[in-house]
């Protein structure tokens, strides 16, 4: 097990792997973790300097039930299974999840007429607990909704989750169970061969018997490296606004739009960090790097959000961002085994990949077997217990026992998010330490609050630059800390 | 939302006065109250050092010492801390008030553990912050190199005036004295200041040698990883790109009102600070608010004066005096942005602090109650949006404390 960020890649025997997974988003990390159960040599290669730095860091963070998936598709099955698997895993690994349930709110007659059909579709997807609410009950459940809400379909089980901790938990567990993680390591060429494919990067060459493409938006480009042209990924941008925590009391459920003739509409959802999120837009683009927000996009979101929850607009915005969905022109994932190439493509993981990640990983294990992988006997993974970033669970600054053991957990550095020096130091010595301040934010929430570093930016940076301190172990954080 | 406390729980303590925030306002309140014999006066400061914002302003502009020598921000801050300590107040640093456990009881996190501190009176003096890029809804990418003046100043205070911790070429957004402070700080650190971008029709202050784009807005941040430039729409409607690796958003203050809101106290719509009367009383009996928390940045001397002035009402409260049921609401109408205090309570006539939305040359100001003008006067000078003007006590002398809302309006 090791994590590399710089320097030459291993050579000789150390550069030979049984399986290499390319792309350390939530999907690739889940696959690496699933493989780590077996006595295999596994590497996870990532172009960015951190795990989860692509689409996996910028989504709406909902653990979907799959009630509205297209029945019979692979996506529908993997989302349903993934919801169950990730729900259980989150409890075990300490990933914050809040099962708030969703309400699909109808704002006109056409939308209201659609609700029973959505309930039937949910039933075909195996979800029998949906329920129709009238205007009065809806108003009682969500008292801050704007005027004109006619009714809603309630979908129990829809939950919010921390996407950053999820990817990091998978990758951490994979590394601790023996996987090599190579960051800053874009695979630029593939030289297919037998028994080894050669993967060429600027840091050297790795060899692998089997290869998994989990390159997200770039899955088509990676396919091209091995001579396959099965689909094209079109990035579909989703812009989002995150509102300050004072907005949290305005909304109790995940408020989903009713899909209709006028497009998908926007959702309003609490986050596990105690904020409220508004978005996303849906814009088809050509540029796979276009993760910027636009004036029109943000204005449109505010206009729609203001109709759903008028008081939301009085609150400050703490973040604006955009993510790119990997659309391929097919209402399903594009997961395929290519046994002749000993190669599996995991592409087109559109807007449900966070939810489905664990089920995708199990599915891919099966496909790797079809490609000739004999994994051998499974053994338990090294345990992980992630630092809690969720407001619904105890945080270190409120943990008297932890502070008594280490006063660093009683020293708040990032005041808006209440992040303590102890948490920052623990992140710096964790299995996969952050590569920069953004990575530190995703591990601790430091600098992620309403002041965006006005108060704490310099101090957080100083701690980061000081780096890990000798004699400090994450063990103080508790058993199984990453 | 109540937050779980795990293991052992919190130590419960009682003090006479708890001041939250050791900036100029909180420290002067503590000094005055301790000197007046208010009992145990404790100041909580979440930073490692007490003194508030002036600690980071390493230049004169903070009044003078006893010998008439100009004070720098850090010297001013040290003096304020010294005076509070000398008067007998306890100043605790590295200690954060994180919420309420009761109407006058604060939840506190300190390296020594969790506490619940119950007080006879609580004085909130938590200051203000500048709106960052996100709150200003500036679109674009999310690169490094996007700062506020606060972060810039603290970065210089923490790492020294060195370009490697800031950048090489910066643009400053804003046109008031805080923007000028940012320009000076950048230049002193060896950073080239490419331009000042201001929405104002003309800049408030001179920016020696730096081009100023007036009537302009930042429409997009560019660059991946590190900022590479900003798109600016000028007064003529044309958009151009300014190359820079750093952008500093200045001004646009919002009170740090978290504890106010966590308590459910009403906010003043114009300032986003808590509504108080002229005794600095909030809607909760025993809870007071002073300083920049009330309305964003005023000079340190104004904040400190409020700290001293709150002492009278706090002492009354500690002596068992009644809490006024309510007062007469005061509001500003355009082109005035806000007026404080937001309520007129039982005290005699009081002065008002007024902030215009835009430049007003020799405006006529009118104070009206229930539709009837109480006072109407032409002001001699020019009002500007980055400075408040104080209207003396005579402006409110006719207010009927049993009457309806008071309005302050202006015409040019
Ligand atoms: C706006 C929006 C909202 C969403 N909301 C939800 C939601 O609420 N719930 C949900 O379940 N899902 C949601 N999703 C979907 C979810 O985010 C994605 O399905 C998921 O993150 C995809 O993960 P991934 O690992 O496939 O891709 P990515 O996270 O993009 O990871 C791919 C990785 O591969 C790397 N890579 C690419 N090429 C190479 C190469 N040649 N060499 C090395 N590395 C390479 C990239 O750097 C990247 O890190 C949403 C998506 C968007 C955009
Ligand atoms: C860039 C800049 C330049 C300036 N230049 C000048 C100048 O030249 N001359 C001048 O007179 N004035 C100047 N000022 C204004 C002056 O600094 C402020 O008006 C003054 O500091 C306000 O005092 P305050 O006590 O209200 O707030 P602050 O000084 O902001 O103090 C508030 C304190 O409360 C603490 N706090 C907040 N919340 C909590 C909590 N929950 N628990 C514990 N502690 C908490 C904060 O850490 C902070 O120390 C300048 C301001 C800025 C930003």
UniProtKB/TrEMBL annotation, chain A:
Domain of life: Bacteria
Domain BFD-like [2Fe-2S]-binding: 412-466
InterPro entries recorded: BFD-like_2Fe2S-bd_dom, BFD-like_2Fe2S-bd_dom_sf, FAD-dep_OxRdtase, FAD/NAD-bd_sf, G3P_Oxidase/Oxidoreductase
Gene3D superfamilies referenced in this protein's UniProt entry, alphabetically: BFD-like [2Fe-2S]-binding domain, D-Amino Acid Oxidase, subunit A, domain 2, FAD/NAD(P)-binding domain
Oxidoreductase among keywords: yes
Entry EC no(s): 1.1.5.3
KW Glycosyltransferase (keyword) present: no
Domain FAD dependent oxidoreductase: 18-364
UniProt GO molecular function: glycerol-3-phosphate dehydrogenase (quinone) activity
Alphabetical keyword list: Oxidoreductase
Protein name: Glycerol-3-phosphate dehydrogenase
UniProtKB/TrEMBL annotation, chain B:
Pfam families for this protein: Pyr_redox_2
Domain of life: Bacteria
GO molecular function: oxidoreductase activity
Sorted UniProt keywords: Oxidoreductase
Every FAD/NAD(P)-binding domain range: 16-307
InterPro entries reported for this sequence: FAD/NAD-bd_sf, FAD/NAD-binding_dom, Metab_Enz_Cyan_OpOx_G3PDH
Keyword set includes Oxidoreductase: yes
Protein name: Thioredoxin reductase
Species of origin: Streptomyces nymphaeiformis
Lineage, uppermost ranks: Bacteria, Bacillati, Actinomycetota, Actinomycetes, Kitasatosporales
């Amino acid at each position: 097990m090791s994590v590399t960020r710089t320097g030459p890649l291993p050579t000789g025997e150390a550069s030979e792997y049984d399986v290499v997974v390319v792309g350390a988003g939530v999907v690739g990390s889940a696959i690496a973790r699933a493989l780590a159960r077996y006595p295999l040599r596994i590497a996870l290669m990532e172009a960015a300097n951190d795990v989860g730095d692509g689409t996996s860091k910028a989504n709406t963070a909902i653990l979907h039930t799959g009630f509205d998936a297209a029945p019979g598709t692979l996506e529908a099955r993997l989302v349903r299974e993934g919801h169950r698997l990730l729900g259980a895993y989150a409890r075990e690994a300490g990933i914050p999840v809040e099962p708030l349930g969703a309400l699909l709110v109808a704002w006109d007659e056409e939308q209201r007429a659609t609700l029973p059909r959505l309930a039937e579709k949910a039933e075909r997807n195996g979800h029998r607990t949906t329920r129709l609410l009238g205007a009065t009950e809806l108003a009682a459940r969500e008292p801050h909704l704007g005027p004109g809400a006619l009714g809603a379909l309630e979908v129990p089980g829809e939950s919010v989750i921390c996407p950053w901790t999820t990817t990091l938990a998978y990758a951490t567990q994979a590394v601790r169970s023996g996987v090599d993680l190579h960051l800053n390591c874009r695979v630029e060429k593939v030289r297919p061969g037998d028994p080894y494919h050669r993967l060429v990067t600027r840091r050297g060459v790795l060899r692998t018997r089997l290869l998994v493409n989990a390159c997200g938006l770039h899955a088509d480009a990676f396919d091209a490296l091995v001579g396959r042209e099965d689909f094209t990924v079109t990035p579909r941008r989703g812009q989002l606004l995150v509102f300050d925590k004072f907005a949290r009391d305005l909304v109790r459920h995940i408020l989903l739009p009713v899909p209709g003739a006028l497009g998908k509409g926007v959702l309003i959802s609490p986050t596990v960090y105690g904020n409220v999120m508004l978005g996303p837009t849906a814009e088809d683009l050509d540029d796979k790097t276009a993760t910027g927000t636009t004036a029109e996009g943000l204005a449109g979101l505010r206009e729609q959000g203001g109709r759903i929850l008028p008081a939301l607009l009085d609150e400050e915005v703490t973040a604006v961002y955009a993510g790119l969905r990997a659309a391929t022109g097919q209402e399903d994932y594009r997961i395929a085994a290519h046994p002749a190439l000993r190669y599996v493509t995991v592409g087109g993981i559109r807007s449900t990949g966070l939810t489905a990640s664990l089920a995708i990983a199990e599915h891919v294990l099966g496909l790797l077997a079809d490609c000739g992988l004999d994994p051998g006997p499974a053994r338990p993974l090294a345990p992980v217990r992630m630092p809690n970033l969720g407001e619904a669970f105890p945080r270190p600054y409120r943990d008297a026992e932890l502070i008594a053991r280490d006063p660093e957990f009683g020293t708040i550095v990032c005041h808006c998010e209440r992040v303590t020096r102890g948490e920052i130091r623990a992140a710096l010595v964790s299995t996969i330490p952050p590569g920069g301040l953004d990575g530190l934010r995703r591990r601790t929430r430091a600098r992620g609050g309403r002041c965006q570093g006005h108060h704490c930016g310099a101090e957080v940076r100083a701690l980061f630059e000081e780096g890990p301190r000798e004699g400090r172990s994450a063990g103080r954080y508790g058993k199984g800390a990453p | 939302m109540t937050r779980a406390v795990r293991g052992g729980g919190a130590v419960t303590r009682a003090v006479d006065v708890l001041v939250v925030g050791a900036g100029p306002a909180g420290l002067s309140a503590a000094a005055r109250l301790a000197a007046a014999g208010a009992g145990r006066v404790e100041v909580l400061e979440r930073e490692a050092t007490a003194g508030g914002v002036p600690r980071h302003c390493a230049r004169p502009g903070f009044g003078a010492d006893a010998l008439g020598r100009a004070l720098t921000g850090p010297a001013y801050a040290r003096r304020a801390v010294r005076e509070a300590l000398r008067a007998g107040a306890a100043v605790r640093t590295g200690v954060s008030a994180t919420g309420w456990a009761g109407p006058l009881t604060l939840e506190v996190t300190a390296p020594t553990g969790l506490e619940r501190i119950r007080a006879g009176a609580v004085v909130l003096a938590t200051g203000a912050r500048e709106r960052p890029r996100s709150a200003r809804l500036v679109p674009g990418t999310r690169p490094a190199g996007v700062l506020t003046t606060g972060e810039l100043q603290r970065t210089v205070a923490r790492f020294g005036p060195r370009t490697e911790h800031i950048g090489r070429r910066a643009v400053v957004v804003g046109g008031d004295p805080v923007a000028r402070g940012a320009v000076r700080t950048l230049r002193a650190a060896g950073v080239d200041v490419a331009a000042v971008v201001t929405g104002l029709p003309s800049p408030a202050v001179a920016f020696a040698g730096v081009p100023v784009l007036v009537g302009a807005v930042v429409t997009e941040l560019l660059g991946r990883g590190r900022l590479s430039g900003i798109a600016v729409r000028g007064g003529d409607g044309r958009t151009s790109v300014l190359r820079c690796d750093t952008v500093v958003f200045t001004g646009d203050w919002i009170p740090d009102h978290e504890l106010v809101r966590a308590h459910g106290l009403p906010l003043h719509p114009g300032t986003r600070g808590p509504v108080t009367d002229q005794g600095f009383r909030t809607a909760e009996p025993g809870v007071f608010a002073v300083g920049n928390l009330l309305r964003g940045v005023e000079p340190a001397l104004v904040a400190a004066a409020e700290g001293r002035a709150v002492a009278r009402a706090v002492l009354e409260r500690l002596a068992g005096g009644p809490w006024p049921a309510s007062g007469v609401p005061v509001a500003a109408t355009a082109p005035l942005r806000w007026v404080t205090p937001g309520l007129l309570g039982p005290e005699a006539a009081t002065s008002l602090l007024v902030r215009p939305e835009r430049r007003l040359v020799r405006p006529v100001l009118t104070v009206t109650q229930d539709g009837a003008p109480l006072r109407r006067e032409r002001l001699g000078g020019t009002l500007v949006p980055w400075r408040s003007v104080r209207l003396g006590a005579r402006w409110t002398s006719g207010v009927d404390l049993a009457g309806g809302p008071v309005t302050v309006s202006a015409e040019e």
